[in-house]
Amino acid sequence: MKSFSLVYRVGFSAAAVFFLTVPARSQAQVALPRAPQAKVTTLTEPGYFSEPSVAVNPINSKQVVVAYQVPAHIAYSTDAGQHWEHAANVAPKDFKISGDVSVTYDIQGHAILCSIAFNKLGTFNYWGHATTTNEVLIRRSLDGGKTWEPTPITVSLQPQPPGIPFEDKSYIVADTSQGRYAGNLYVAWTRWSLVDSRMVLSRSTDDGKTWSTPTEIDQKPGLPRDDNGALEGFDGAVGADSTVYAVWAAGNQLQFTTSRDGGKTFAKVKNIIRSGPTMFAVQDFDRANGFPQIAVDPRSGNHKHAHLYVTWSDYRNGDIDVFCARSVDGGKKWSAPVRVNNDPIHDGADQFFQWLSVDPVTGAVSILFYDRRLDPENKKTLVTLARSTDEGQTFQNYAWSEKPFVASEQDFMGDYSGIASFNNRVYGAWAEDTATNDTPPTEQEKPSAAAKDHSKDHTIVRVGVADFSSTSPSK
User: Fold this and answer.
1) CA–CA separation, 243 and 255 (whole Å)
2) CB atoms inside a 10 Å sphere around CB 440
3) pTM for this structure?
4) Rounded distance, CA 366 to CA 14, Å?
5) Mind listing the pLDDT tens digit for each residue in 68-106?
6) CA–CA separation, 156 vs 165, rounded Å?
7) 60-187-140-428 Cα dihedral, nearest 10 degrees
8) Domain boundaries 19-467, CATH class
């Protein structure tokens, strides 16, 4: 649910750059420049909110949408993130729970929300056991995110009694290229059963109105639990010639495959990067993970020359770090991993919950992650934005959030964050915990007028904006 798996996977302007400094473990001062023109807006009151996704409309870049759970919600902006409103009637009415949200814009500028929905989970982390009716569905907005069609569209429905497969961690990808299959939509997810986990995918060729029968795209099933060893964390990207690139985690490997026929068939899956386990414990977090993301620079050309980037996090260095690898030949060969967070190695600070975006206009690589480098006790968490303008070879780190939060194990923080970028403007969305944060919010961090309190829990969703227009020339 990402999880809900599902337990349930279910936003300060600064004209000038300033620095945050605190004593570090290395007895030196750690300083991060503030992300240029940073602005953070709080979208919700404290509740049971997590796992946001964010997208920018390539046809009208002032339109931005953020999805989050639970249940499925949408916040939208029509002025490039300066102000936010909440859309009505987003969650499906026929299910108690909806989450594992992802959002994209299609080639027509329609916003498409994907989520899962269910009434009852199976056994903890063994979702194929005793689970009941569940569904992968999408909802469309034909006006860029303000209003949403009243009837959800089914991608996959499991309607039988207990013991049926459980559909989990779905993610949507749109083909906005000028390629042969421009306009296609793809949704892939983990399908749990009693005996294994499989990566399945469905595609739409009619703007999401209908969806193909899900097909398995993995080479070999994974283990049947929502722990290490399962096939989890699908993410996809579409290149300039409509080639679909996909990654997910399988044990200590990141797996990769491609489709050149609009998602009808996929190449043989291959292991591209050996990682540490992609599910791990983080102090004061109920659970965390380093699921991979993939992005493509659409300016780089067809599948033979496509520049691809994959990010993930693992603890090969003891503490958890964020990594990035790149390919300049469409995924045939991959570079050695580059450490994205630039604090001293082996300093005991964890960086995790990363998400990746490549600016389709400039090619800049942006990565959002949770960051604990400023706390010797490795508890206080900030949100950091890393950016590369040399094709992922080096990364500059910027402070995005203004003050840290401390997580509470009783509050589910989710498995995902979100980031999107367009023409040097970057949007990030993340969850924070307010249970142990007694610092009053700044004026700009106070919830927007449209935010609503849906429970007595302590998690909130924030969206950040950063603008590199004056600092990073386009290539």
Assistant:
1) 17
2) 8
3) 0.90
4) 19
5) 999 999 999 999 999 999 999 999 999 999 999 999 999
6) 11
7) -50
8) mainly beta
